[in-house]
Design brief:
The protein is of the alpha/beta class and 249 residues long. The protein has 2 domains: 11-86, no CATH class; 106-241, Nucleotidyltransferase, domain 5, CATH 3.30.420. The chain has 10 helices and 5 strands. A 5-stranded mixed sheet has the order 3-2-1-4-5. The radius of gyration is 23 Å and the shape is elongated. The protein starts with 10 loop residues before the first helix and ends in a 14-residue tail after the last helix.
């Protein structure tokens, strides 16, 4: 049975974040503001206004537990000014360090890019992020073939920690191929299996993963006809479909 990592209180990471505000005029501590923000976002609030409204819906006792000594919630402008001045990179690094103990238990890291819905603003392109997400292989898939050979279908993958261990912004002037290596450079991929879509089925990326002690599981599509045919030829005779003993899904 896998050992469960017990992490310290989330507020511990906030102690590493530098308060960008001037000392004069502070009404709320940085710790209280960040705890309110995280609590509100976990409850579904995704904008500064929604976070402020979530705070106003809390009781005085609840706000005091979050660190607001007077039991008064901040307004949306206070939160927006804080978010604008904060060092977002330092905050993300603190989050990554906080969750790093979980990474040691992960067997599979899935890399995937997503465009944030609603992030496009006129001529400003939408925000595209490349993320490294913790996963594991479903135990049922391993028990199918005790000999060590298994055909793993898409349905045999499941989320384990569901933690995003790292995330990189992909500029509209470049693409995910140039970002995936810096993304993984900040993680320890030794002994891990890296999964990604067909865009990253590149010789250079495969060599990078192997050189760093990892393995990869990538998709090959028809646009790489030669590689696809070579892979198909490897399975002819060794794994004939008519002799498969795997249960039908």
């Amino acid at each position: 049975m896998r050992k469960i990592k017990i992490l310290p209180p989330l507020e511990k990471i906030f102690e590493k974040v530098v308060d960008p505000r001037n000392d004069s005029g502070k009404r709320h501590s940085l710790l209280a503001l960040l705890k309110l923000t995280v609590s509100a976002m976990l409850s579904g609030a995704i904008t500064g206004q929604a976070i402020a409204e979530w705070g106003r819906s809390r009781s005085r006792d609840e706000l005091k537990q979050l660190g607001f000594k007077r039991g008064i919630s901040p307004c949306a402008m206070t939160l927006l000014i804080l978010f604008k001045r904060m060092d977002s990179v330092a905050f993300e690094n603190a989050l990554r360090d906080y969750f790093s103990p979980i990474l040691s238990n992960e067997e599979v890291i899935a890399v995937d890019g997503k465009t944030l819905r609603g992030s496009r603003d006129g001529v400003i392109p939408a925000v595209h992020l490349l993320s490294a997400l913790g996963q594991k292989t479903c135990e049922a898939a391993r028990s199918v073939c005790p000999s060590g050979y298994a055909v793993i279908q898409r349905s045999t993958w499941m989320y384990e920690s569901r933690v995003v261990f790292n995330e990189y912004f992909v500029s509209h002037k470049t693409n995910e191929i140039k970002v995936i290596v810096p993304l993984l450079d900040e993680l320890k991929i030794n002994g891990k299996v890296i999964t990604a879509d067909a865009l990253h089925t590149q010789k250079g990326f495969c060599e990078y993963v192997v050189d760093h002690g990892g393995d990869y599981l990538l998709t090959v599509k028809d646009n790489q006809k030669g590689l696809r045919e070579d892979i198909s030829d490897c399975f002819v005779g060794d794994f004939p479909p008519q002799e498969s003993k795997l249960p039908r899904s």
